[in-house]
Design brief:
Mean pLDDT: 90
Shape: globular
Largest sheet: 5 strands, mixed
InterPro entries: ATPase_NBD, ROK, ROK_cs
Strand content: 15-25%
Organism: Lichenifustis flavocetrariae
CATH topology of the largest domain: Nucleotidyltransferase, domain 5
Order of helices and strands: EEEEEHEEEHEHEEEHHHHHEHEH
Oligomer: single chain
CATH class of the largest domain: Alpha Beta
Family: Belongs to the ROK (NagC/XylR) family.
Helix content: 25-40%
Number of strands: 14
CATH superfamily of the largest domain: ATPase, nucleotide binding domain
Protein name: ROK family protein
Low-confidence stretches: 1-10
């Protein structure tokens, strides 16, 4: 029996379980067909414990969520997990944030444990799906989602479908090269890649390097004795710190260059920006718009670039949608 809860007009709504598997935090939820999270459980991910340890954690979180919903039975389980992975085969190939994970048949292992259909998707793709169905991308048929935080990831909706590519490896947008000759790289990626220059990690590194005795007093105070982070930059810029404002101006230009590339590649109706730096889009939209106007071909210049609407829940809502869209 599928999970049912009463809707506003007395209609019974379908529900699905969702898991957002992060290298730091593991979350499980029950999500209804309107995109609302009905129950949530979370824990720190045992990322060093290997697949068996994490799968045991997932099972325990699912049990906690199921305990909150009583006798109701969900339609299945959707998992948002770090790539690279093969969503069709349900295999986690080699996620760098999870130690000892190599060709793990995650879908099959969890189906055996919980006795429900299980679907697997790249975490950025899942967030894109959530924003498209229930968030800032709702109503479009062509949308690009970009998350700018520790790294830069993304997902693409093309002609009303999530774009997968071969083995589900499409839309690794953070690895676009946007600056030939740059010597900057992060996480072992290519030098000059978009995430090497414009991710939250890159912004924090640049802020730490730029803080001097006379500049960035508020930024330096927020960072204390440690290195600056992108969050410190945003907070200091909101308080009028000149160095932080200049750093965000540079960040906006670099993001704008990447957005123009995505416009030319995918012709989206809308670009939706999530992640930690997505919340600072209001501080950067002027320079982003100028960059788009000077670099994009004329038909692309009116593409809206908007902040994500679902925040931390986008991956969970998108993961649940993997099941709900099939039913």
């Amino acid at each position: 029996m599928a999970a049912r809860i009463a809707g506003a007009a007395g209609r019974l709504m379908r529900q699905a379980l969702a898991v957002d598997l992060g290298g730091t935090e593991l979350r499980a939820a029950l999500v209804d067909e309107t995109g609302r999270v009905q129950a949530l459980a979370k824990t720190a991910t045992d990322s060093a414990g290997g697949p068996d340890a994490v799968i045991t954690q997932i099972s325990a979180l699912i049990d906690r969520v199921m305990a909150e919903i009583g006798l109701l039975r969900p339609l299945g389980l959707g998992i948002a997990a770090p790539g690279p992975l093969d969503p069709v085969a349900g295999i986690a190939l080699a996620p760098p944030t999870l130690q000892g994970w190599h060709d793990v048949p995650l879908t099959a292992l969890l189906q055996d444990r919980i006795g429900l259909p299980v679907r697997l998707e790249n975490d950025a793709n899942a967030a894109a799906l959530g924003e498209w169905r229930f968030g800032a991308g709702r109503g479009t048929q062509n949308m690009v989602f970009v998350t700018v935080s520790t790294g830069i990831g993304g997902g693409v909706i093309a002609d009303g479908r999530l774009l997968h590519g071969w083995r589900g490896l499409a839309a690794e947008v953070g690895h676009m090269t946007i600056a030939l000759g740059s010597d900057k790289s992060v996480f072992g990626g290519a030098t000059g890649a978009w995430e090497a220059l414009a991710s939250g990690t890159a912004l924090g590194i640049e802020a730490t390097r730029s803080m001097g005795a006379a500049e960035g007093a508020r930024l330096r105070a927020l960072a204390g004795w440690g290195p600056a982070s992108s969050r410190h930059v945003v907070l200091a810029a909101r308080e009028g710190d000149a160095l932080a404002t200049a750093l965000l101006h540079r960040e906006a230009h670099l993001l704008g260059v990447g957005f123009v590339n995505l416009m030319h590649l995918y012709a989206p109706e809308r670009i939706v920006v999530g992640g930690g730096l997505g919340t600072a889009l209001d501080l950067m939209d002027g320079e982003i718009a100028r960059t788009v106007q000077t670099r994009a071909l004329a038909p692309y210049r009116t593409t809206p670039i908007v902040p994500a609407a679902l925040g931390h829940e986008a991956g969970l809502v998108g993961a649940a949608s993997l099941i709900l869209m099939e039913s």
